[in-house]
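Example 202, ligand adenosine-5'-triphosphate.
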Amino acid sequence: MQTQPPTLTAKGLKFQSIGPVDLAVAAGGCLALVGPSGAGKSLTLKMIADLVPHDGDCFIDGTAASSMPAPRWRSQVRYVSSEPGWWAPSVAGHFADPKTQADAMKRLFLDASLLSAAPDRLSTGERQRMAFLRAIEDRPKVLLLDEPTSALDPASVTAVEEIVRELMAAGAAIVLTSHDPEQVERLADEVLTLKKATEMAP
Ligand SMILES: Nc1ncnc2c1ncn2[C@@H]1O[C@H](COP(=O)(O)OP(=O)(O)OP(=O)(O)O)[C@@H](O)[C@H]1O
């Protein structure tokens, strides 16, 4: 049960047939968005991150996203896609300070040499773990994890979940999508089920 005021609040989020979605997550909390494929889980995370046009608004510690420039909102609210994009020639080019990643990479079974590699040379699972590390480098207040371990082996899943728990303990508010009910059980303290628009028709 959440006893402190929420870090993240979303009210009336709506994009085409998805929503309206209301939610709230406190510091240290994890809300899981679940539901069938196509129900709008990823789009809801993208609306929260202000990456797609939408109705409704989100608030961080009571301040509306609509009241601040988008870059300021996105510096606090980070969307971690299950299919991350890469823009620099090397993996290292996506970090402010790649040297600080050595310990975390070791924990996630990632060889240090991957930093100097081109992103498209990495395996899907390596890219997913590096994108996760990239997203948490500056410890955003709100982390939106979209199927964060979909391409990972069980040991790497456990290692990523350990880091997620540490971020929560340090005060991050997490919104997670996952098709793995056991992962939802392990990480989330609240669950919000989204339905496909056709299921909601009277
Ligand atoms: N940018 C977009 N514009 C219009 N429709 C979109 C857009 N992105 C996704 N959709 C559609 O919205 C619906 C919800 O997509 P979304 O990716 O949020 O589903 P999801 O619940 O995350 O599914 P999955 O579990 O398969 O990842 C889908 O029918 C999808 O085709």
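Summary: Residues 154-169 form the longest helix (16 residues).
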